Amino acid sequence: MTAPGTGSSDEELIDAVRQGDLGAYAALYQRYAEPAQRTARQCAADHADQQDLVSEAFVRVLTAIRGGGGPRDNLRPYLQVAIRNLATNRWNDQRRLDARVLEPLPGPAHAGSDEIALRHWRHQLVRLAFRALPARWRLVLWHLEVNGESPSALAPLLDLTPNAVSALAVRAREGLRKAYLQVQVPETGVPGCRAARTRMGAWLRNGLEPRRAGPITSHVGECADCQAVVAELTEVNRELRPPAGSCPVGCG
């Protein structure tokens, strides 16, 4: 029997994949990679996210076909649905993560275009902040906040007690809030300003030891440019949930 090629129908290629022919799946990938990219661009603004959606969707479709399910004679609509479902799941995951960092925006549930843009911008910042965290913090936040697992369920994976997992989660949540501020600190080529701004997110959250906070406080007191940055970020800081047991800078 001749192996299906690029001129074969979707049905022929899918049947070949179901029988273990990964070359047939490569032909399907070549056929539908660009349409899949177009669908992903409708679902995500970031190029890296688009690539992730396409890659994961193809993997899911391949797994379904090899398991006896999936499409029978037309891959494209099945692939498009997979991409949209993945994007929806990611959006819901992002909203759960946002809720641990940000106070809800005031106003009606049906937002106008300006508020939609603001929400999107905040989502993007939370995502950047999450990526900046240590791997262990990302792991605990993802399992507890996004997947909704309990500290008891996560404890064996981290080789910790449930109480220790809960304590780690508190530090990780506050670390995410600090990182949310830090990713918004403008870069500068001025050495004194650069040193102060490196930890400005944590400083704004009262999260530094006195020996680290002191030089930043002194510099900000003398630098008009950094005072302007602090004034802007103090407003942003009011969007954040307060740290446990302390008052962030600017809260009165």
UniProtKB/TrEMBL annotation:
Superkingdom in the source lineage: Bacteria
GO MF annotation, one = sigma factor activity
A Gene Ontology biological process in which this protein takes part is: DNA-templated transcription initiation
Q: Which Pfam families match?
A: Sigma70_r2, zf-HC2
Describe the location of the RNA polymerase sigma-70 region domain by residue ranges: 28-96
The Putative zinc-finger domain covers 193-227
* Keywords for the protein's UniProt record, in alphabetical order: DNA-binding, Sigma factor, Transcription, Transcription regulation
Question: Carries keyword Transmembrane?
Answer: no
Instruction: Give the family from UniProt.
Output: Belongs to the sigma-70 factor family. ECF subfamily.
Name by which UniProt lists this protein: RNA polymerase sigma factor (Sigma-70 family)
| Organism name | Actinophytocola xinjiangensis
Q: Lineage of the native species? A: Bacteria, Bacillati, Actinomycetota, Actinomycetes, Pseudonocardiales
